[in-house]
Write a structure and sequence with these properties.
Order of helices and strands of chain B: EEEEEEEEEEE
Number of helices of chain A: 0
Oligomer: heterodimer
Largest sheet of chain B: 6 strands, mixed
Helix content of chain A: under 10%
Strand content of chain B: over 45%
Order of helices and strands of chain A: EEEEEEEEEEE
Helix content of chain B: under 10%
Largest interface: A-B, 20 and 19 residues
Number of strands of chain A: 11
Distance between the termini of chain B: 38 Å
Strand content of chain A: over 45%
Radius of gyration of chain B: 13 Å
Structural class of chain A: mainly beta
Number of strands of chain B: 11
Structural class of chain B: mainly beta
Largest sheet of chain A: 7 strands, mixed
Distance between the termini of chain A: 37 Å
Chain lengths: 112, 112
Amino acid sequence: DAGVIQSPRHEVTEMGQEVTLRCKPISGHNSLFWYRQTMMRGLELLIYFNNNVPIDDSGMPEDRFSAKMPNASFSTLKIQPSEPRDSAVYFCASRTTGVEQYFGPGTRLTVT
Amino acid sequence: DQQVKQNSPSLSVQEGRISILNCDYTNSMFDYFLWYKKYPAEGPTFLISISSIKDKNEDGRFTVFLNKSAKHLSLHIVPSQPGDSAVYFCAAFGGSNYKLTFGKGTLLTVNP
């Protein structure tokens, strides 16, 4: 079975540009999570979807960040406009009814 | 306010010896704990978990111990192998129906 799929794996962009990160959760999983990992703050939960509905977006740092889940097999995290401090590794994770979350390989974002 | 703390950023052990990774938590609402392992350029992968009703859970070379009164858990790896070299994250669940709270991780290096 395929795990969580994320694209792109690496993204380098200039400050001010729009960035879109993509995630395909494991089939049958009904919960999806977006995380950001930085050296300073570790793994931070940005937003959580359950059955495609955003339940908690309190971790989204500011209005420049937005996330959507139009269907059960696809989600996007968009940053517009991007800033150098957004440089981090962004992970998507999914789960069913259990506690364990299954992570994708991540997208390394560099904003210059 | 860091609710899950891994106070050792790194640990180095010899192949064949025991590795002990530690984790402390502050929130008494946490009732389930997990360890994840992360290799470079990959997402965290679930390793082992323990419910708060237990004090020990074992899976092959990996054992997790929970001391609820001390709000402390540890992961023991015996015997350690070079392939165990990775970052290990402690995570806690409870007080909500979805959120995992992660520590900042400990880099384990197992030397041949």
